[in-house]
Design brief:
Helices cover 6% and strands 39% of the residues. It has 168 residues and is mostly beta strands. It has 2 domains: 4-86, RimM (Elongation Factor Tu (Ef-tu), domain 3, Beta Barrel), CATH 2.40.30.60; 97-160, PRC-barrel domain (SH3 type barrels, Roll). The chain is elongated and about 55 Å long. The mean pLDDT is 91.
Amino acid sequence: MTDLICVGAISGAFGVHGEVRLKSFTADPLAIADYVPLTREDGSGAFEIQITREIKNGFAARMSGVRNKEEADALKGVRLFAPRDRLPQLPDDEFYHADLIGLSVFDTGGAPLGQVKAVQNHGADDLLELIVPGQSSTVLLPFTQAAVPTVDLTAGRIVADPPEGLFD
């Protein structure tokens, strides 16, 4: 488990006065402002943010140290992180994506299926993107109770009951 959790990303400048386009990855999108200061993944930077308004696919926001469009554009693609201890405790059946990445995945018989590379969401349920040994492409496993009955963070493993034909 990592000490920093990705809570948002900057997708470029908004306007010419130094505002940024901010994507929030928190359950309540406005809650991203509750976890400031935010940093880069390596812990550098300490950004205070002030959300100024909602825009398509996120928010317009002011960030400390960003005074003009060029400085805002320079931050495009920067992912913003908050220390885990500033985030809320989750119920037993919810997980931070960062906790799932890297976990080994086994079928219900104990046979290894792969390792979690990423957690994807394309509008419906979350999908676990798995690296499967011996395959060049990844496999997307639905992250539902039926397909993933057990997540054991302590043991660093996931038990999956994948849909028929997914690993053929």
